[in-house]
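tool_call: predict_structure(chain=1)
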Amino acid sequence: MTPKVSIIIPVYNCELYIAQAIESVLNQTYTDYEIIVINDGSTDNTHQVLQPYMKKIRYFSQENKGLSATRNQGIKMAKGKLISLLDADDLFLYYKLQEQVAIFEAEPSIGLVQSGWRVVNEKGEKIEDVKPWHKSPELDLVTWLKWKATNPSGMMFRKEWLERVNGFNEDLRRLEDFDIVIRLALAGCQATWFPKVAVCYRQHRGNMTRNLLAQIEVEEKILDELFSNPNLPGKIQHLEKELRYGSLIWNCWRLYKTGNFSEMATYLQKSLSYTSDPPTVAICTWIELFTKLDSQEGNQFNAYSFSQLPQWKKLISNIFNPVVPRVSVIIATYNNAYYIVEAIASIFNQTYRSYEIIVIDDGSTDNTRQVLEPYLDKIRYLYQENKGVSHARNLGLEMARGEFISFLDADDFFLPDKLAKQVAVFDAHPSLGIVHSGWRLVNEKGEKISDIEFWHWYGSLELDLETWVVWKPVTISMMFRKSWIKSVGGFDTRWHHGEDIDLVLRLSVNGCQAVWLPKITYCYRQHHYNVTRKYTQQAVSINSVLDNFFSRQNLSTSIRQLERKSRYYTHNWLAWQAHRNGDLIEMGKYLRQAWKYTSLSMTETIDDCINSFDGFCQQYGYDFDAYALTNSDVWQQLMLDMVITI
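tool_result:
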């Protein structure tokens, strides 16, 4: 017999609570249901805990794909016309299904019913009951956007509506419930309240800071996508500033309550762009709201203590006495807690003082944020879910106030006069868009390996398009004029490696002028484990970047004629990277590719390869064993192939 309701329970490492969740369904007064449990790659004892229930549930196990994908799998499996979600650490109260089903039967036009919820602690003890219908009796798009009164375990859907909007957005790891109610409302789905507390929502204190920061970032992304929709109803479009302002202030309150004062100040500053109130009025509004929210929690807001926070004082100073830095230093970091303090210290030690530091934490899972805690009043810090270095740098560019942009990897560091020297070149040559400099290769301890001074190779300090295309002397020791990066749209987020090469090529082909500052300013740390892991990925990305560049329709004939030389040099370098990591088979593949593009004779090509490998090894502090290479089976086969083909 086909059940009327399908209860979908996604579970990931929830052995402590999953049995209680299932029991809360089995104890329902309504019995026309099925229970679907999707194990999303749990590594704890979840499977064993579920064994006594296997005859009462439909069980599916998959590799870890995230909550949205897991719920979507449950929706595909569901036989019922009504879908009820239950998180594995939450509980249904006994009447939940019966009373929600009754609403659907009484109102056939309804597609979604949302109940109230009881917040409980990890032991299941009551903290508070949440009854959002008192604030917003209607459940329409404006209500969802203004109050975000969503709780997945309190929801019941008509399956046909979930299928109509293609289920949950699998790109989202948070706020997927907020996203889906917006999409349902835009599609015309009617929603209503079941005005009773019907589920217990278990609140976990662990990892709250990281989750909150990521949640705010995802919320902004959802709103960005919503308000970029050209078909958005006019009444919603007109609410954009009001909704964004309210959302930011509410999130600032949450950041304040969790001790994230630096992030609170950053978002309060951002909120000013969404209000027409003068700063003095906005500041009073913030204090009034914080006082009200504290009162609702049974607390008394201490305005004096709040006003003494260093982050608040700095915010007020920035609002009324703004000092615009000339240089924005952007650090994109992912799991670099061990080195990032040294990177930041190298900025503090600059002889040039007109700068700001922007740190974009790209979803670090180590203790990066804790390490940065002492510096949060001196830097601008934002956390985002892991999206890659290009996306993180672009977010930094959006925040940057400086005229010039300098990037710094979290495991590298500046030499003391980097900013001063590069800014001086810009000031002397206002038409420049890029000032490049030399860099120092250092080992994991920061000790010098070698200095790279490319300008000696060319006999000129000018960096023209031909130089970029052929030799690609790209590192983040460069400083950019921000207006130029903005003009080409920042980094292309398609590329996870070679994104800086792509950016410089796009800048140069659009007329951006660049020169060398003939000085070592940047220390580039070499990690053997990083190089080993990444060189094959680099090869794919860099070749894709070149494919994309040479497919441009607006390239001059002279630049297009450089393609063979560019690809020859690139594959030679990739071959050396493979050799450096002991992968002679892969080295052979890249050399075969390189030799397809050579204009040299066989002898000249072999000599050039050996000399290139020797030069690269010297740069990176390695001894090159030409004898071992040329006597290897891979090399001997290469020579045989070369004789046959040339």
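agent: The radius of gyration is 29 Å. Proceeding to next step.
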